Amino acid sequence: MEDVFADGEGEKIYETQSGVSNLVVVHSTGIYSNHNDRHLHLLKAKLFPASITCPHSAFTFNVLDNFLIDALECKTSAMSFYQKLQHFTNNTFPNKIPDHYHELMRVSCIWRDLVNRIRFGFGHQTDRSPGPGDLALWLVMQRYVVDGNFTAQHMKMKTPEDNVSLADGKGYMVTKEPYQNHITESVEEREVSSVNAANVQRSNLRATGVGATACARHGCFVPHAVVDFQKGERSVVVL
Q: Rounded to a whole number, what is the largest CA-CA distance in the chain?
């Protein structure tokens, strides 16, 4: 195992400072410990720390990639994915495995954002920031269609302030604040709709569906043109 904490090639670190919490990695080639800039050493070893100040846990780049694929293709929740890892570790007593579910949620959000920025050319230049829709693929066409999905519902969070967006409006979804201002200021005539009747009383829902503008030929979404529906089907949200 490569010494990810050594300052020079072939150097091992055995001593630790008293009173300082250290991250210790035990391997067949030796015991390694460090307390300075550990998050940078971990990243070089392809280990993503759960904290940059005093990391006590880290996730391999591989497990983060696997989680993104499982969530995309298998619709696996973070809780189910972590429980699977617990069973892999100890299938007899999975509840004895330390619970790092919340760390997985936080790190996977950061990892997804970093991967997107790298793919679209914003990963290595700190002086460039993505604009609206810059983190989304798009094929230029002249024909568009608008449609909605009323099964993509989203329940209200107990602590919405904890849901911090890392790329608000940078992908397919519109920027939150201008969109909310548009909904508040817009006036629309009341109309009877079966979709409205089904969702208007769902006070526990933050969003009753999504609406999107897409390419009429290829079906791909237009960047910065996907919105949430608040109360059933309202044309004002996509105008």
A: 74
